[in-house]
Amino acid sequence: MSSGASSRAGRAFALALPALVFVAFVVAPLLVLGELADPFELADYERAAVARAWSRGLLLALGVATLSAALAVPLARAASPLALLGLLLVSRSHLAMGVLALGLAPGPGAATLTLVLDSLPLAALLVGLRLRTRPRARIDAAADLGASWLERAWTFELPHLAPALLAAWSWALLQGLGDVVAFELAGGGHSYTPGLLIRDALLREQAGARALAGVLGILVVALPCAWMVAGELEGFEAHARRGELAPRTTAPCARAGAGTRPSGGRCSWPCSPPPRPCCSGSTPPGSRPATSSSAASARAAWASPRGSAPSPAPSPLASPWCHEKRTRASSRPPCSRPSPCRQRSPACSR
User: Fold this and answer.
1) DSSP assignment of 65-85
2) Which structural domains are found in the chain, ordered by start?
3) 3-class DSSP state for residue 336?
4) What pTM did the predictor assign?
5) Contact of 174 with 224, CB cutoff 8 Å
6) DSSP H stretches of helix in 79-157
7) Residue 133 has what DSSP assignment?
8) Is 153 buried (19+), middle (13-18) or exposed (0-12) by CB count in 10 A?
9) Contact at 8 Å (CB) between 245 and 160?
10) How does pLDDT run across 185-226, given as a tens digit for each residue?
11) Fewer CB atoms inside 10 Å of the end CB: C or N, the chain?
12) d(CA 150, CA 275)
């Protein structure tokens, strides 16, 4: 079998497998419930019960998802993956009884705390896997150029962690909507959620219409969440294939002539890239080849007095801009002014 045929077969299998899973676990149960009752044939008291369960359950699930996503980053930095895997083995019923043993009264607060404790280990694992691949070189270069920790987090780390944070948030949201154990034990029956609605409709009251309404509501929430996670991950991977991370904000860099420094003694952050990076392999006119391409030497150049001679510029071949264009280096003219920044984008120009 040729490589083209095998690649087409792989793509067909990748498309067919999610479709089969969707039909087996979503369409087939809905058809069974549809045979039992019509979701639009609900009595007035059933409509009120569905509306009350969704209003309370969605509010509590949003709180659980937001807390889990916010606490996942510090927990991923502090705890090891092995410890997080051990926390995943703790059952939700034991967590609910432990929360009640702390002295909390059964209610929405105890149920929310139980769900946060249950969703947090998996959220931290997702974020921790993403933290291992964050662009350390660009973050260090931004720190050398004077960017604060908030600017570095907003420009580099947050776009990188966005798929993992969104996946953790969606997971905790769906956990809160479909949970039964936490709201049954720690909630004490005071918070009637979609999970309890479906459980009671199927097992206790034999109300297929009410159960189908709850299942359809969860699908309406789950499918957009999956679409957002897939879209965010695909967008990040596209940026990664191009070799850059799109910054959230850009600000024009103070541009000065060659051999001088911007006003204020250092470069502003974030900055737009120089208009024409040098990838020709020849030394730019008016500069000597540098022995080091670190951002520390670039920062020392900004700190030099105005009247002194410029510091040696970094070699154009060491710039990340040249990484993808070295094969076309012969067609590039030499630079008129070099850039001292290590990173690709955002960057500063002298």
Assistant:
1) HHHHHHHHHHHHHHS-HHHHH
2) 38-242 (1.10.3720.10)
3) coil
4) 0.57
5) no
6) 81-88, 92-101, 108-131, 136-144, 149-152
7) T
8) middle
9) yes
10) 888 766 678 888 888 888 777 777 778 778 888 888 887 777
11) N
12) 27
